[in-house]
Design brief:
The protein is an alpha/beta fold. The protein has helices spanning 38-46, 96-99, 145-148, 151-163, 179-190, 203-211, 247-256, 276-281, 295-304, 323-330, and strands at 2-8, 11-16, 26-35, 48-49, 52-53, 58-59, 63-71, 83-86, 128-132, 136-138, 171-175, 195-200, 216-219, 237-242, 257-265, 285-288, 314-319, 338-342. The strands form four sheets. Strands 3, 7, 8, 9, 10, 17 and 18 form a seven-stranded mixed sheet that branches.
Length: 343
Amino acid sequence: MKAVVIHSARDLRVEERDIDTAGPGQVDIAVEAGGICGSDLHYFNHGGFGTVRVREPMILGHEVAGRVVALGSGVSHLAVGDRVAVSPSRPCNHCDYCLKGQQNHCLNMRFYGSAMPMPHIQGAFRERLVADATQCHRINTDISINEAAFAEPFAVTLHGVSRAGSLQGKRVLVTGCGPIGVLAIIAARLHGAREVVATDVMDPVLKTAGLIGADRTINVVSQPDALNVYSANKGTFDVHFEASGNERAIRSGLDVLKPRGILVQLGLGAEISLPQNTIVAKEIEIKGTFRFHDEFGLAVDLINQKRVDFSPLLSEIFPVADAVKAFEIAGDRSRAMKVQLSF
């Protein structure tokens, strides 16, 4: 089979790999679509992120969907021919965090395409993938395989929204309108947000944010003072979903959050400084959000029910043979929102 393998920064290759055999409780999947994620781009452009570095060749990818081609023994809820979205999250379900229902913090997590452990956890950008049956969620026949491949990043934002508590009737600010930011807009709307304002530094992504549900979009470069109106009376927004990892975006959000507002940090970035006096005086709650677990099944349910429309987010689809070109375009925010590979 063909697989998309990272060797080091800017050294991405399409290689031949052996096909595995499904064992007990597993299924063999012909992968058909895979979305390129921000973490995939970090491996491609920089060879890793933070202290995590690629130390051996690793198959990338964790946003995939495909078709079941074989079943291992003991699998009863799936059949050959089923189309499935595959959760990349494989917790041990035995450690203290798993037993407390916090599987996203599993001490022995095997998350596709991760260079954190050694040997690395190989990813899912491959023509055939053997997965645990519990990872596979059936998708309806009237759902495209490309829609199904959005389940993973959508689950990330559904978990982020859950960290904020109820959004019913709340005013929401989203900073950073890459794929996670715009999916956070969709998730916030589904959870009852009354108003959503989105900011970024690029007009193309802000246009997408408007198409999928933002009431107002602000380019903070061309309209640097546009958020100021929301700081009146100690702030306007109940919740701020920060998806850029940028210090300025975080600070601007703190200025316009109401007292006892909630900042949910979705985006990753470098170390930053924060205005402690503002946080203390306004009693701001700052919450992190990391991956997901049960939310993957919810994401697939919402996709199957056609309650979400990801079509404005899908920029281009490339055959796996053109993986390097796909990664180059996926990293250009002026040209692409979400790029997928076709296997």
